[in-house]
């Protein structure tokens, strides 16, 4: 009996031990988990609490817990792996993706098991310790960009990258001549710290891929990514390649860090294609190029360039393309078809990325399985021709994210990356030196500072196509405007059939409003000879003369007519000016042809179709000579009394405050940038023309009419702000002194003239 009791007590004790020991162990580990802090991603993120009392014990505990967790993960991976085949084959069935015969951790995104977990548990990327990218490591990004539209679209991609980035960036643009001109000017004036840009001539690469028939809307440029190993510098080891229709929702350094996960012979990082295209079941007799399973999308590519070169990538893709084209005849998805055909034959090349690195928003895709929450999103790819009109139940969210960057003020992205040495930018250094020399206590400091402000400039915002006439008489109308004068564009286009160069002073959001306005206008869309150049807003003044200079620099005809957006030129003025070029021997003389200016106070005017009709309206009081009642001196030297009866051109002399609208040769001097807003902006330019001995010749059968509008903000400031007028007078006097120093004795008349503003 006693033995039985003892046996029961032993059994009870053993049972309690079995129950309590795991419980105590669980409590201990739980307590450890609550106190353990995640390892910092960089030295800058060390928490103060890890640097004081008990630090050694806590760190040792953290390390031990992480070691145990890693051992458990390794054990689970080992148990979940199927038996390995004794031989490795490069031929995989359609159900195999990438290097599935190699064991990988699920967080590396190299197989279907990883994709399954993403689809069922969301992209819990924040729980995965990412490889650290050095704080000052330069991230290289390659983008193929050609034409006006792509040059506009790529800016949104660049903004999204700049918004999130914490590292220096080096963009490599493979461009045609159009995109290079636009983007070179944009980045030069954007002046973003720690950003380098290089351009590679796509025209020189066309022969490398022009032999490949391609049905894709991207044309020959859609094949350029195949030759990046040959195009990019030989010392460049790795690069992220992006399509222009990509939007980043995270720091690009996270994607750059994935290079550390490449193993073996993996040289391409790609996301699985999220449509059924390569499955060949979209329609009857649908026959896509060969691919592993669903294939891979090439909108986002990680390229290990040094390894690709060693693998003789050029020869590899060429042989594959030649073989497949014998039966396929052409590509349907440009470079993507050839990349997939190469991977089909060499699956060991690819490292499959989690699909949140390329959420593909084309119709009928599985993109919705790539995310469960906003925080899961990394990269959005608008890879449908429909772009923002694509079908997706969350498309409103994606569209709003895209529009945020589309309309985001790019000037706010000019932020420094502290702690990283950057290459010397002499333009930026000289600008800073000049600004430091200005006296901030000067009442006119803001006026003086505006002269040196670098405004971000996007040339040719819309498609432009025009070849000047071969007779060397062609003329471009030059003007500038802001958002409140947009309604004048259609009327000017109806009055002037020749080329036009316009500088528009807009914010990023206003630029998109202008784009929608222009694309909705049949008049504007029917004209391909109008160059729209966006100068983005910055500062408190309207930089009128900078805008004029921007528009003038883009003139590609021998002559230009310097106008203002508020004026409607007479019907036929374009052809009349071209005839005057020959009649007055403009090519061999320095002349400024004056177009007499008139104005109306009526918003609805029956525009005179001839000089006789204009004189009739002038006599009836429907029209007036321009500014006769407020600024007579501005146009008085035109001599309107003589013009009424003139039948041949006549010369007039410069007088103080003369500011006519003139046609000149393209090589005429630019406007002086010190004059901003209202006052003396045209007067100073005409004075410069006179100093350079231009002859002012009035055309007898030409005219233009100023249309009424509400007063501009700048003229309101001029009239109401005494300091504004004082500063304008100071700038005028300084300009006259400069003229005297530059032109000597001949410029004394500008000092002595009674120039009242």
Kindly describe this structure.
The protein has 757 residues and is an alpha/beta fold. It folds into two domains: 139-413, Spore Coat Polysaccharide Biosynthesis Protein SpsA, Chain A (Alpha-Beta Complex), CATH 3.90.550.10; 457-750, Spore Coat Polysaccharide Biosynthesis Protein SpsA, Chain A, CATH 3.90.550. β12, α15 (488-495) and β13 (500-506) form a beta-alpha-beta unit. α4 packs parallel to α5 (177-190). The radius of gyration is 34 Å and the shape is elongated. The termini are far apart.
Q: Secondary structure elements and their pairing?
A:
Blueprint: H1 2-35, H2 55-80, H3 112-121, E1 139-145, H4 147-164, E2 169-175, H5 177-190, E3 195-201, H6 206-209, H7 228-231, E4 238-242, E5 246-248, H8 252-256, E6 268-272, E7 296-304, H9 305-310, H10 313-328, H11 335-345, E8 350-353, E9 359-360, E10 379-381, H12 395-406, H13 426-437, H14 445-450, E11 457-458, E12 475-482, H15 488-495, E13 500-506, H16 508-519, H17 522-525, E14 530-536, H18 544-553, E15 559-562, E16 567-569, H19 573-583, E17 591-595, E18 597-599, H20 611-620, E19 624-625, H21 640-645, E20 650-652, E21 661-665, H22 681-691, E22 695-698, E23 704-706, H23 713-720, H24 722-743, H25 748-752
Parallel strand pairs: 1-2, 1-4, 2-3, 6-8, 9-10, 12-13, 12-15, 13-14, 17-22, 18-23
Antiparallel strand pairs: 4-7, 5-10, 6-7, 11-14, 15-21, 16-23, 17-21, 18-19, 20-22
């Amino acid at each position: 009996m006693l033995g039985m009791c003892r046996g029961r007590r032993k059994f009870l004790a053993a049972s309690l031990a079995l129950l309590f020991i795991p419980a105590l162990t669980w409590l201990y580990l739980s307590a450890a988990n609550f106190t353990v802090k995640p390892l910092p991603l960089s030295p800058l993120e060390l928490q103060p609490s890890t640097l004081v009392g008990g630090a050694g014990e806590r760190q040792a505990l953290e390390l031990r817990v992480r070691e145990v967790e890693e051992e458990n993960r390794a054990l689970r991976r080992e148990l979940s792996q199927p038996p390995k085949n004794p031989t490795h084959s490069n031929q995989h069935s359609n159900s195999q993706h990438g290097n599935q015969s190699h064991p990988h951790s699920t967080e590396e995104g190299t197989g279907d098991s990883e994709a399954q977990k993403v689809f069922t548990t969301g992209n819990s990327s924040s729980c995965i310790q990412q490889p650290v990218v050095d704080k000052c490591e330069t991230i290289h990004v390659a983008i193929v960009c050609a034409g006006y539209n792509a040059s506009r679209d790529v800016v949104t991609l660049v903004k999204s990258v700049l918004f999130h980035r914490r590292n220096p960036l080096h963009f490599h643009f493979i461009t045609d001549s159009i995109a290079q001109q636009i983007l070179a000017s944009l980045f030069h004036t954007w002046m973003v710290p720690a950003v380098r840009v290089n351009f590679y001539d796509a025209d020189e690469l066309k022969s490398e891929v022009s032999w490949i028939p391609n049905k894709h809307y991207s044309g020959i440029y859609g094949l350029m990514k195949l030759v990046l190993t040959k195009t990019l510098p030989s010392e460049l080891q790795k690069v992220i390649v992006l399509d222009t229709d990509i939007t980043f929702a995270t720091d690009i350094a996270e994607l750059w860090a994935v290079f550390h996960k490449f193993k073996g012979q993996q040289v391409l990082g790609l996301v699985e294609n999220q449509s059924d295209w390569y499955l060949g079941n979209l329609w009857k007799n649908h026959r896509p190029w060969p691919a592993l399973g669903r294939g891979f999308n090439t909108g986002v590519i990680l390229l290990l360039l040094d390894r690709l070169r060693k693998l003789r990538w050029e020869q590899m893709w060429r042989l594959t393309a030649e073989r497949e084209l014998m039966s396929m005849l052409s590509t349907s998805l440009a470079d993507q078809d050839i990349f997939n055909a190469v991977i089909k034959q060499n699956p060991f090349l690819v490292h499959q990325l989690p699909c949140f690195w390329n959420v593909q928003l084309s119709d009928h895709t599985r993109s919705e399985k790539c995310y469960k929450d906003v925080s899961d999103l990394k990269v959005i790819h608008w890879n449908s021709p429909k772009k923002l009109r694509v079908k997706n139940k969350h498309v409103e969210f994606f569209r709003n994210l895209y529009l945020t960057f589309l309309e985001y003020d790019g000037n706010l992205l000019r932020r420094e990356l502290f702690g990283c040495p950057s290459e010397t930018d002499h333009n930026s250094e000289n600008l800073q030196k000049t600004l430091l020399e200005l006296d901030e206590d000067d009442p006119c400091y803001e006026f003086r500072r505006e002269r040196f402000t670098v405004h971000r400039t996007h040339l040719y915002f819309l498609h432009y196509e025009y070849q000047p006439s071969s007779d060397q008489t062609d003329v471009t109308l030059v003007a500038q405007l802001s958002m409140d004068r947009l309604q004048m564009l259609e009327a000017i286009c109806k009055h002037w059939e020749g080329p036009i160069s316009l500088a528009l002073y807009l914010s990023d959001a206003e630029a998109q409003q202008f784009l929608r306005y222009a694309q909705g206008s049949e008049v504007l869309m029917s004209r391909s000879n109008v160059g729209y150049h966006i100068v983005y807003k910055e500062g408190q003044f309207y930089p009128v003369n900078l805008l004029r200079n921007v528009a003038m620099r883009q003139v590609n005809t021998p002559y230009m007519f310097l106008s203002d957006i508020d004026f409607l030129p007479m019907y036929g003025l374009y052809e009349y000016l071209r005839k005057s070029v020959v009649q007055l021997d403009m090519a061999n003389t320095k002349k400024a042809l004056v177009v007499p200016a008139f104005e109306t106070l009526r918003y609805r005017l029956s525009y005179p179709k001839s000089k006789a009709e204009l004189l009739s309206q002038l006599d009836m009081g429907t029209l007036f000579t321009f500014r006769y009642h407020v600024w007579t001196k501005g146009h008085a030297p035109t001599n309107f009394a003589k013009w009424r009866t003139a039948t041949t051109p006549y010369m007039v002399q410069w007088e103080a405050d003369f500011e006519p609208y003139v046609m000149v040769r393209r090589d005429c001097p630019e406007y002086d940038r010190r004059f901003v807003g209202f006052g003396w902006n045209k007067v100073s330019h005409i004075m410069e023309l006179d100093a350079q001995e231009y002859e002012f010749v009035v055309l007898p059968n030409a005219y233009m009419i100023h249309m009424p509008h509400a007063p501009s903000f700048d003229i309101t400031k001029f009239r109401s702000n005494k300091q504004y007028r004082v500063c304008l007078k100071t700038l005028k006097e300084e300009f006259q002194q400069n003229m005297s120093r530059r032109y000597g004795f001949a410029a004394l008349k500008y000092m002595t003239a009674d120039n009242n503003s």
